[in-house]
Amino acid sequence: MDQEEQRAHDLRELHAQVARVKEKTRPWKETIALILAIAAAELSRNAASVFGPYISNNPHPTHYTNAIKYALAIVFCALAIVAVLGISAKTRAFFEPRVGSAHAAVIRYALLLAGLVVTLIITLQLLGVPVGQLVVGTALTSVLLGIAAQQSLSNIFAGMVLLLSRPFRVGDPIQLRAGALGGQLEGVVTEIGITYIRLDTGETIMSVPNSQVLAAAVGPIPRPVQEPAPPPLPDGDSPATRPPGTGTRI
User: Beta-carbon neighbour count of residue 187 at 10 Å?
Assistant: First the structure.
């Protein structure tokens, strides 16, 4: 091994060691971000009592207090987003070898959505935005968006049902029977996603919406019936060893 190969080998070893160290220390990043986010939220909520005595001699102490309050609210939002992203990613890595990548992805998306919604609500409260009126407006907007994205949402909920009920697994040969699919569809399941499942039909990879899969009749592909082998002829006689023009001996 020459010097260039040895140097490349040492560099790969160094990168591997750094990756292992980061993997061990990475959980602390989310924990520290969450603790700092909680501290920023408390300081923003009590900015007047905490920072008021230090800026009381200024000509406009209320303006300074509000500026500190809003700045800490923005800091809370940024730190909380970092914590939510890290915790959801760690949760997926924890559940993936136990329940599979598809179920782990659902858990990650649920935690991510819940964490971002809670972060948004707390940030708006810290900024003094009336959350009640905003919730009403958001509810109306959500209804309109839900009607517009009805098909996509139905695929997502159908995907969650398929992941929880498990009528089939990745690698299973299945057949789907439904009028929406144009009859019968056969293939091997290669992926179960949030909106689609993918079937290897032998000719191509087809993506089938989860809502149509949930509404279809699902079953395994029947195996071909094997005919029983003919019984051997007595005394080792067989058509291959029998002389031409002779029949079966009785």
Answer: 22
The reported pLDDT for the residue numbered 39 is: 93
Q: Model confidence over 126-164: pLDDT tens digits?
A: 888 776 666 666 665 666 566 655 667 777 777 777 777
Q: Which domains does the chain have, with CATH numbers?
A: 3-137 (no CATH), 155-220 (2.30.30.60)
Of 85, 111, 87, 75, the C-alpha closest to 31 is 87
Averaged pLDDT score across all residues of the chain: 75
Task: Produce one character per residue of 201-225: b if its CB has 16 or more CB atoms within 10 Å, e if not.
Answer: eeeeeeebbbbbbbebeeeeeeeee
- Beta-strand ranges (E) seen in the chain are 173-178, 183-192, 196-200, 205-209, 217-220
Distance separating alpha carbons of residues 33 and 64, to the nearest angstrom:
26
Average pLDDT over residues 185-205: 83
d(CA 69, CA 125): 11
Higher pLDDT, 180 or 23: 180
Residue pair 73/126 in contact (Cβ under 8 Å)? The answer is yes
